[in-house]
Design brief:
single chain; alpha/beta; Rossmann fold; 2 domains; 7-stranded mixed sheet; 9 helices; 7 strands; about 45% helix
């Protein structure tokens, strides 16, 4: 589902950083989905008419190097691909984005909670609630193979206004009105 949400994240990032004509995408080359992520964002960038730079980081130290490249290449905004490494390094990513004055959007609410600008993704709380319902059904005797596969249906947009102010960005009212949470 995270790959399918990338065009929406790119659109939100374009609204948050309208001056950005060059947008970078950070992916982990060790992630089996990285090629699909790149293709999906390239398609969205063509539609948006922005130049897309691909940055790769497969370790904590490579994240620092990717940000150095990002600054050198003068990217105006950054889209972070969903990846367990990036989730674990969320504080590092959020801090580097602010330090280098690059608006960045992430896939999970935990990023803006540690200082990232914004996130858009499936609600983990709603997914965990559904998991609990399924566990209850199984404990009551239903066979797991008989239960339908479900995808997330609840998505959340989180915006960190402190970070927006630190980056000199004005968050449009349309984004604030759609946000599920605004961190002030």
């Amino acid at each position: 589902m995270n790959v399918e949400l990338l065009p929406k994240r790119l659109e939100l990032l374009s609204v948050l950083a309208p001056q950005a004509r060059v947008i970078a995408l950070l992916v982990n080359p060790n992630n089996p989905s990285s090629q699909r992520i790149i293709e999906k964002v390239q398609e969205g960038a063509r539609v948006k008419g922005v130049q897309l730079l691909i940055l790769k980081a497969g370790s904590k130290s490579e994240i620092d190097a990717a940000f150095a490249s990002l600054v050198q290449l003068q990217a105006g905004a950054l889209l972070i691909g969903a990846d367990p490494l990036f989730f674990l390094q969320r504080s590092q990513l959020a801090e580097l984005a602010v330090r280098h004055a690059v608006p960045a959007i992430f896939d999970a609410r935990e990023f803006p909670a540690v200082g990232g600008l914004a996130s858009y993704g499936a609600s983990l709380m709603a997914a965990n609630r559904q998991l609990g319902i399924y566990a209850g059904r199984i404990l009551k005797g239903e066979k797991p193979a008989d239960l339908p596969v479900q995808q997330p249906t609840t998505f959340e947009l989180v915006v960190n206004l402190k970070t927006a102010n630190a980056l000199g960005l004005t968050v449009p009212p349309s984004i604030l009105a759609r946000a599920d949470e605004v961190i002030e």
